[in-house]
Specification:
The chain is of the alpha/beta class and about 475 residues long. The chain is built from 14 helices and 17 strands. It has two domains: about 350 residues, Glycosidases (TIM Barrel, Alpha-Beta Barrel), CATH 3.20.20.80; about 70 residues, Immunoglobulin-like (Sandwich). The structure holds ligand 9MR. Ligand 9MR binds next to loops.
Length: about 475
């Protein structure tokens, strides 16, 4: 989903969506409706309290009205899905998938290989590299396989980079027991389990500069290597847990820095997503109306990256209401866009106004080709990390010289003799399926934006197209 030409300057209605708004919005305007007009995903986690049934009814109403992408706060993590060895537990995850489907939402899966929320039984194998590799592979196979075709994107590897120095995080059973190749392997296994899922590396502090001394600079070097080695990675998730600048004197992150990362990733055909946004204030301080307004401005500045950068499409907030937020544990407060009483805050207003007023550059829709997938099995290319030869990891390579472009309703493909062509609308629903035998196929679909996947054997290429 991304960047369609949109009608800007929508007529403002008179209906107030929430108490205390100084701005008016039309009755049918929500974050979700305006995000969809702009071709982006906007979302919030389903808190663990939702899974336990402990939230007031209007929480869910707000969630499904305002958001079009969802992720579980804790319920798809390793400890939740494989609490004991090879015994999988999908009840909560299934509940969310059902909810998302009923409400037409995109689904993020979070997270497969992470140092935290790993059940104790895994640590029993901390000195057994072979066993740990097979534990991770089995976990990924089962979990991604269970939700194949349902979970649209996965955080395959989460927080693998150290906090203080640009290097891998040493404190991780996966890193200590396997080495850095657990990362490459996790992507390959996730891709094998669901070749259509978008696969992300996810981390925090990525808004602190793209230089060799910062996390984002280190990550960028790894992404270059993964891409060069054909590791199937499609996106970087920037968690973006940030603190209001006036209360954190040491805060060194900025929307501009994150935008720079997005632009570097675009050169590699990798997307940037904001996956866990919150902008908290220090616990204990009085937060004034003007503080909340400044917070709204920062929410808007991060949104601008998603609206303006062609390889950015997702703006996900780590919670709905300040009442149910993990931020207290980080000595922060009031970092979300609804207050304790589920009333929209100035940040909500600020996001709405920006979504309403945003005018995309006129030529983005036809030329955006950021969604390239990379998937081929055969190749002798090797990653530079040391591979465990006892477990064969099929390496992947890019789709080589395959290209596609569209003119009118005709799709032209080069580099494939006989391609299977599948066209999906921007919500991922299939709308056309056919074969391309002689380099061209007529797509029997209405005008609009679509994702097209062409496949031949194990090679495939995914790209966004505009039918005009
Ligand atoms: O919000 C989650 C909280 O309920 C858990 O106790 C915590 C445990 O690690 O994880 C929180 O979610 C984290 C996410 O999975 C990864 N990025 C940081 C998030 C906030 O800590």
């Amino acid at each position: 989903m991304k960047k369609r030409l949109t009608i800007s300057g929508l007529a403002l209605g008179v209906t107030l969506l929430g108490v205390g708004f100084s701005t008016t919005f039309a009755a049918d305007e929500t974050l979700r409706s305006l995000a969809e007009k702009n071709g982006i995903y906007i979302g919030a986690i389903l808190n663990s309290q939702w899974f336990g049934g402990g939230l007031p009814g209007n929480y869910e109403q707000i969630h499904k009205t305002q958001f079009n992408i969802v992720v579980a706060e804790n319920e798809m993590k390793f400890d939740a899905t494989e609490p004991s060895e090879n015994r999988f537990s999908y009840g909560n995850g299934d509940k969310m998938v059902k909810y998302a489907k009923q409400n037409g939402m995109r689904i993020r899966g979070h997270a497969l290989a992470w140092h935290s929320q790993v059940p104790n039984w895994v640590n029993n194998y901390k000195n057994d590299k072979k066993k740990l590799l097979s534990v991770l592979k089995n976990h990924i196979n089962n979990v991604v396989g269970h939700w194949k075709g349902q979970v649209d994107e996965w955080d395959v590897v989460n927080e693998a980079i150290s906090n203080n120095e640009p290097q891998w995080r040493g404190y991780s059973v996966w890193y200590q027991g396997i080495g850095p190749e657990f990362i490459d392997s996790a992507f390959v296994w996730a891709h094998a389990a669901d070749p259509d899922a978008e696969l992300c590396y996810n981390d925090y502090n990525l808004e602190q500069g793209v230089n060799p001394k910062a996390k984002a600079g280190f990550l960028l070097e790894q992404v270059k290597r993964w891409v060069a080695n054909g590791i199937p990675i499609h996106c970087v998730g920037s968690q973006t847990h940030v603190e209001d600048t006036t209360t954190d004197k040491h805060f060194i992150g900025s929307p501009d820095s994150l935008r720079s990362l997005a632009r570097e990733l675009a050169k590699l055909n990798i997307k940037l997503k904001i996956t866990e946004l919150d902008i908290g204030f220090k616990s204990g301080i009085n937060v004034s109306q003007s503080d909340l307004e400044r917070q709204g401005k920062t929410f808007r500045e991060y949104l601008d990256i998603i609206l303006e950068e062609p390889n950015a499409d997702t703006y996900l907030i780590w919670g709905v209401s300040d009442k149910w937020s993990w931020l207290g544990g980080l000595n922060r407060q009031k970092g979300l866009i609804y207050d304790d009483n589920l009333k929209p805050k100035p940040a909500f207003d600020s996001i709405m106004v920006r979504l309403q007023n945003f005018e995309p550059p006129q030529d983005t829709a036809a030329t955006d080709t950021t969604a390239n997938d990379t998937t081929v099995t055969d190749t002798t290319k090797k990653d530079t990390t040391v591979q465990d030869t006892s477990i064969a990891i099929p390496q992947t390579a890019g789709p080589g010289s395959v290209t596609m472009h569209v003119a009118g309703h005709t799709l032209f493909i080069t580099g494939m003799k006989s391609a299977k062509v599948d066209v999906f609308d921007m919500q991922g629903r299939p709308v056309f399926s056919g074969k391309c035998e002689k380099g061209a196929v007529d797509l029997n679909v209405a005008e609009g934006l679509y994702m097209v996947r062409v496949r031949e054997g194990s090679r495939n290429l995914v790209q966004k197209i505009a039918i005009k």
